[in-house]
Write a structure and sequence with these properties.
Layout: E1 5-8, H1 9-38, H2 47-71, E2 73-76, E3 90-95, E4 107-113, E5 124-126, H3 130-135, E6 143-146, E7 153-162
Parallel strand pairs: 1-2, 4-5
Antiparallel strand pairs: 3-4, 3-7, 6-7
């Protein structure tokens, strides 16, 4: 059974765009490489031809994989993301509950996205990540515990907004 892929509208659009680019531009580039490699003569001992055919196989496998992901996609509509509890598509602000400074600098903010869109460096955490799992379903004011290698970390949910 195929696994459901959760995507934001932005992630769905990017996936469609990538499939389109690979299916047209990249496919044509690889076909041209194969054509040029054939012109070198005997293809049984032609490493350029072998490389181009391998690239073609990898490209086709990637296109198939992305198309499968698209077929199994469940798109989270940003307009319908609840701000009552944390869910995929939400933007959540967290703070250490022991930090009494109330400074906005001590807040951390994350967008909760499906695993295929995760980009931790840019604040986009997977719903399957430790932080993502811990905050899902919780409300503003809740304190969540996140398992970490050096011991559990606690965060208080300060704000929940519809994702970007």
């Amino acid at each position: 059974m195929d696994r459901e892929v959760i995507l934001t509208e932005e992630g769905y659009a990017k996936l469609k765009e990538e499939i389109e680019q690979l299916s047209t531009t990249k496919r044509n580039e690889v076909a041209e490489r194969i054509k040029e490699a054939r012109e070198f003569g005997d293809i049984s001992e032609n490493s350029e031809y072998d490389d181009a055919k391998n690239e073609q196989a990898q490209l086709e496998a990637k296109i198939l994989s992305l198309e499968q992901k698209l077929r199994n996609a469940r798109v989270v509509d940003a307009e319908h993301v609840s701000t009552d509890t944390v869910s995929v598509g939400a933007h959540v602000t967290l703070r250490d509950p022991n930090d009494k400074s109330r400074s906005k600098k001590s807040n951390v903010e994350y967008s909760i996205v499906g695993s295929s869109e995760a980009d931790p460096k840019n604040g986009r955490l997977s719903n399957e990540s430790p932080v993502g799992k811990a905050v899902l379903g919780h409300k503003v004011g809740d304190i969540v515990t996140i398992p970490a290698p050096r011991g559990a970390i606690e965060y208080k949910i300060v704000k929940i907004e519809a994702g970007d």
